[in-house]
Amino acid sequence: MSLVRLIVGVGLVGVFVAVSWVAVAAMVKQTGGEEFCASCHTMKPMAAAYRDDVHGGKNTWGIRAECVDCHLPHNNPVNYLYRKAVTGMHDVWAEFTYDLDSIDWEAMRERREHYVYDSGCLHCHTKLEAASEINNKTFVAHKPYFLGATKEQCASCHKYVGHKNLGEKLSSIQVGKE
Q1: At 34, which helix (H) or strand (E)?
Q2: Model pLDDT for residues 96-141, shown as the tens digit of each residue
Q3: Exposure string over 31-43, b if 16+ CB within 10 A, otherwise e
Q4: Does the pLDDT of residue 176 top 60, yes or no?
Q5: What residues contact 32, with CB distance under 8 A and at least 6 apart?
Q6: Hey, what long-range contacts does 102-106 have (CB within 8 A, 24 or more apart)?
Q7: In the predicted model, what is the mean pLDDT of residues 138-147?
Q8: How many beta carbons lie within 10 A of that of residue 9, not counting itself?
């Protein structure tokens, strides 16, 4: 009888793990894109600038990066889920407790390396190092990065990546408040 209980217990644990995995994957997918992120009013200008950008689908191929593709680390699944949880909880807390209209978004843009992860860039741009070797201008620009000879991050040089004309979108909000 104890062998049957063990088998049933292991089976139930397996079902629980599988259902949990599917639920977490669905939740991560549902809360990772522009539609969800822009549901908070403070993200509206970022979403508008994203839609105007190559990464937002304004490209020949119609390929879109989701918010989490850039704004979460892709170095390992545990860190990805941890940062998603921490960032999500912070954003909910901020939405209900901060004076969001007083945030200086332009100043926040100067700290972009804190919000964009190189592992996210390289998750999509998988052949960047090899492609850089073909083009001399790109090679010279990326060589120190791939050699580990610089502390610069992707967003250090690519200042406006992901959100085309974000400064204009942010300015229009400020003008609307006056």
Answers
A1: helix 34-37
A2: 898 888 888 889 999 999 999 999 999 999 988 888 888 888 888 8
A3: ebbbebbbeeebb
A4: no
A5: 66, 67, 68, 69, 84
A6: 103/42, 105/45, 105/170, 106/167, 106/170
A7: 89
A8: 10
Q: What is the CATH number of domain 38-177?
A: 1.10.3820
Nearest to 108 by CA among 100, 120, 97: 100
Tell which residue, 109, 98, 107, has the closest CA to residue 42: 98
Residue from 129, 126, 128, 121 nearest 73 by CA: 121
User: 63 to each of 88, 105, 133, 172, how far by Cα in Å?
Assistant: 25, 27, 24, 28
* The two three-digit tokens of residue 21, written as one number: 């995995």
Q: Are 36 and 95 in contact (CB under 8 A)?
A: no
- Residues shown for the chain: 178
- The yes-or-no verdict on residue 172 having pLDDT over 60 is yes
User: Does the pLDDT of residue 177 top 80, yes or no?
Assistant: no
Burial code (b: 16+ CB inside 10 Å, e: under 16) for 65-98 equals: bbbbbbbbbbeeeeebeebbeeeeeeeeeeeeee
**Token reading at 127:** 């052949």
Label each residue of 75-127 as H, E or C: CCHHHHHHHHHHHHHHHHHHHHHCCHHHCCHHHHHCCHHHCCCHHHHHHHCCC
